[in-house]
């Protein structure tokens, strides 16, 4: 049952996002579009409630609960950034807005952007693992089964950190900074 709720929440996220953008830009109903976009976080609430109900009604802590926790963590960590990205592209494609800027490799802005992305990943990880632990505590059966995916996620987070902080400023940018000083 919980896997169906997870799938429904994933679909619900994208449906609300698309409906919000279409309503906002194609139908030119910005307030209604904002209402639809404001409903996107409710998907996380539904998933959290379903997970707690499943655990409290005797469900065995398992990967499906971990998956729900990861979904919630990623949504919290990257949700606003994803909505902002989608809004920029929808405004460009549907309403003739300016094309979203692609940051040039080797610039300070690109390096900062990559590091901010990693900080969002850390937030997602923290929320996801916290939800796994809380679900384990609520089950009364421990959280060992729930934290299995957290170890893999930890490795991914560390690799993402190395990659994010490997973005530097190219020589041309360094010269501009040196000339400015």
Structural summary, described in words:
This protein is mainly alpha-helical. The chain has helices spanning 2-26, 30-38, 40-56, 63-95, 108-139, 144-166, 171-180. Helix 1 (2-26) packs antiparallel against helix 2. The chain is flat and about 65 Å long. The mean pLDDT is 92.
The portion of residues forming beta strands comes to: under 5%
What is the helical fraction, as a range of percent? Answer: over 70%
Secondary-structure-based class equals mainly alpha
Rg over alpha carbons: 20 Å
Work out the number of β strands.
Answer: 0
Mean of residue pLDDT?
Answer: 92
Global shape: flat
N to C succession of SSEs: HHHHHHH
The stretches of 5 or more residues where confidence is low (pLDDT under 50) are: none
Biggest β-sheet: count, sense, barrel? none
Discrete helix count: 7
Gap between N and C termini: 62 Å
Summarize the structure.
The protein is mostly helical.
SSE layout and pairings?
Elements: H1 2-26, H2 30-38, H3 40-56, H4 63-95, H5 108-139, H6 144-166, H7 171-180
Q: Tags for this entry?
A:
mainly alpha; 7 helices
């Amino acid at each position: 049952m919980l896997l169906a709720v997870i799938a429904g929440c994933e679909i619900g996220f994208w449906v609300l996002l698309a409906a919000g953008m279409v309503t906002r830009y194609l139908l030119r109903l910005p307030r209604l579009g904002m209402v639809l976009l404001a409903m996107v976080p409710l998907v996380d609430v539904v998933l959290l409630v379903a997970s707690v109900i499943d655990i409290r009604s005797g469900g065995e802590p398992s990967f499906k609960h971990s998956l729900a926790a990861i979904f919630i963590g990623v949504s919290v960590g990257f949700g606003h950034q994803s909505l902002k990205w989608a809004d920029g592209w929808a405004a460009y494609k549907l309403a003739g807005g300016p094309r979203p800027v692609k940051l040039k490799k080797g610039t300070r802005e690109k390096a900062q952007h990559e590091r901010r992305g990693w900080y969002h990943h850390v937030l997602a990880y923290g929320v996801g693992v916290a939800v796994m632990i809380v679900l384990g505590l609520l089950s009364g059966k421990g959280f060992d089964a729930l934290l299995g995916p957290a170890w893999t996620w930890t490795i991914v987070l560390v690799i993402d950190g190395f990659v994010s902080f490997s973005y530097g400023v190219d020589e041309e940018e360094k010269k501009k900074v040196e000339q400015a000083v």
